[in-house]
Amino acid sequence: MADEWTKLLDVADCSVGSRRFVATHGKELAVFHLSDPDRFIVIDNACPHASGNLSAGELENATEIVCPWHYWAFDLDSGECTMNEAVRLNRYDCKIENNQLFARLSTPPKHHKD
Ligand code: FES
Question: Which atom of ligand 1 is nearest to 47's Cα?
């Protein structure tokens, strides 16, 4: 179970600069396709502040998602909140195989820096 990878989407359905909401295996996720370098970020869709819809947020400074509810900003690469260092995104390991994006949803959410 620990190494189980779950398919989230076809890479072609989430072009660079876009994001998708994905509900699967009892989780609601936000998938972001960022550039420079080209990479995917998979997080819990619910904002860690008060469960705002992060997949509907504005992307700023190339890597920051701004929650549409109270406008807290989070760095998608580190998970850090730029307004409150005690709050972090839940991020999941992900990989691309055969032009499909997979995530390891059993990975404990990343609350802390690696
Ligand atoms: S719910 Fe996201 S900033 Fe408040």
Answer: 2
The answer to the question of residue 114 being in a domain is no
Does residue 67 lie within any of the structural domains? yes
pLDDT of residue 106: 81
Other beta carbons within 10 Å of 94: 20
Give the DSSP letter of residue 112. S
Supply the mean pLDDT for the chain.
Answer: 92
Domain that holds residue 12: 6-103
CA of 56 to the centre of ligand 1 (A): 12
